[in-house]
Amino acid sequence: MIIYDLLFYVFAALMIFSAVGVVSVKNPVYSVLLLIFTFFNAAAIFILLGAEFLAMAMIIVYAGAIAVLFLFVVMMLNIKTSQIKQCAISHHKLLISVVVLLLAELIAVIYLSLHPQPEIATSQNPLIIDGLKDNTYQLGFVFYTKYVYLFQICGVILFVAIISSIILTFRNSKNIKKQDINSQMSRTKESSIKLATIKTGDGVNAIHRK
Questions:
Q1: Between 136 and which of 22, 30, 53, 96 could a Cys-Cys bridge form, CB atoms 3.0 to 4.6 Å apart?
Q2: Torsion, Cα of 64, 66, 67, 73 (10° steps)
Q3: What global pTM score does this model have?
């Protein structure tokens, strides 16, 4: 048990350090990279608790998809820190309310952790439901039976988020090349292929001279 407790405190300390770095660094790219590091540490803690499904979901979904999406959006949108600061100042009341709410949740979690709680599943003592120890099967069974409609709604929300990210990165500019389906479909052999007779030794430049 000592090694598990030691690993828990190591991963928890790294996760707190990286989470603080997400909101404290000035470079948004570094912030996203620290966010990915936070997800990996959270996944390690889930593995220690015997929740391998949540650990893999944390790595594949969050670190592998959402954080990478954030990174591309940050690089494409060319975010200016001055605009962010002005927005934060203009909405300072809302930000203070969110911070107070998060602190209240953190205090509640710490308070509950210091008091006796019902038995918690760990890797050494997994949660057993109907004789099954595999939490991946248990979660899948609950998702696709009791919460199947809510699960499908989550998929629709993610689909909307994908479309929103595409719209945010889409720009109309003359200097950016983009696909034109009409011009591609209307191409003919005469307009696409040019036959040229090149003499020996003239090279490729002879095509442009013709």
A1: 53
A2: 130
A3: 0.53
> Using alpha carbons only, how large is the chain's radius of gyration in Å?
27
Strand partners, 129: 132
| Domain residue extents for the chain | 1-79, 81-126, 128-172
What residues are paired with 132 via a beta bridge? 129
Q: CATH fold of 1-79, please?
A: Four Helix Bundle (Hemerythrin (Met), subunit A) (1.20.120)
- For 136, 147, 149, 155, 163, the CA distances from 152, given in Å and listed in that order, are 18, 9, 5, 5, 17
Tell me 132's DSSP state.
Answer: B
CA-to-CA distance for 134 and 112, rounded, in angstroms? 27
What's the pLDDT score for residue 119?
52
